[in-house]
Amino acid sequence: MVSKRIKAVVSQISGKVLADIGTDHGYIAIEALREQRVSRAILCDINRRPLQRASENISAAGLNDRAEVRLGNGLTPLRPGEADCISIAGMGGMLMIEILKAEEPSPCLVLQPQLDINAVRRFVHSIGFKIADEQMLFEGRFYTVMRCERGFEEYTDAEYEYGRLLIERKDSVLKQYLIYRITELEKILRMHESAEIIKEKNICGEVLNCM
Fold it and tell me: Which CATH class is domain 4-154?
């Protein structure tokens, strides 16, 4: 069964050729092909073992004619302009940023950072992308998926922290996260008072009051 997280990532994918970076098991690319969101997929990973699993899964899904695996770091296995949509999911935000810094990215990025989501939002803005769509889900933990396209926009500190589109939609999962996060910050403050934590708690509370 495909997880909610993978379904959320796939729902943001569109184009002719998808490059799934850090593909691991290959499920994102396979589902994108099954749902005909793309015509072809390139599955990239820095390690041989995940690529072997991905290759086996591609064969089992009967998609050998529409998908290929490539060994390499980040975007380096891709030729310039080869993919019009790039997905990177399930890795830390800072690693994601390093990957996108190294090579010119495609016109569409579908990103699901595990950590440092604030930093990822700031980075995509710094390289000339806007966040065209964003969704949040809970599946054992909170996940955020964003679709980024060429464009310009600026966010407030609160919007970088929690996502402008999620705030504007009064997203129910974001509301759950805000309640959870305030509780966690209060626990930290009981042990150690920090101006940075107080600031985050205040911003979190202001956003929650708007929901």
Answer: alpha beta
